[in-house]
Amino acid sequence: MPRLNRWVVPATGLFLGLCYLAVGLYRGEPAFGLTGLGVMVAYVVIIAALSRRSEVAQLLSTEGGDERQRLVLLKASAATLNILVVLGVATAFWTLATGHNALFGYVATTALIFLLVFVGTLVYFSRRG
């Protein structure tokens, strides 16, 4: 199974790149699609090339090998979610203060969903250990 895990991130990156290409072609904007594909391919190549020499690249490409790496991933995920929730709540207040803006409304809605999921997982894991 560990050998299969090594290919999950590159395969996902290439799949998403092809999705960008499909969306760009569907919209009649091939430059958009090719740019998205290029960015995703570059990401996959850089992560694959650096994953043997850089712990950060390795963590971006796998689930983490030992307990310390899994703890680093857990802390980074939690910190990222906390930052996104704070930014989302700030965006929601900005939307309320300045009037409705569709983009800010979507970001605020996403932030609310993040917040609800985060609180829900905190409740779940605090009760389940």
From TrEMBL:
What domain of life does the UniProt record list for this protein's source?
A: Bacteria
Residues crossing the lipid bilayer are: 7-26, 32-51, 72-97, 103-125
Which InterPro entries does the UniProt record give? DUF2178_TM (IPR019235)
Question: Would the keyword Membrane turn up in this protein's UniProt record?
Answer: yes
Which UniProt key words apply to this protein? Membrane, Transmembrane, Transmembrane helix
| Signal peptide residue numbers | none
Query: How is this protein named in the record?
Result: Putative membrane protein DUF2178
Origin species, per record, is Allonocardiopsis opalescens
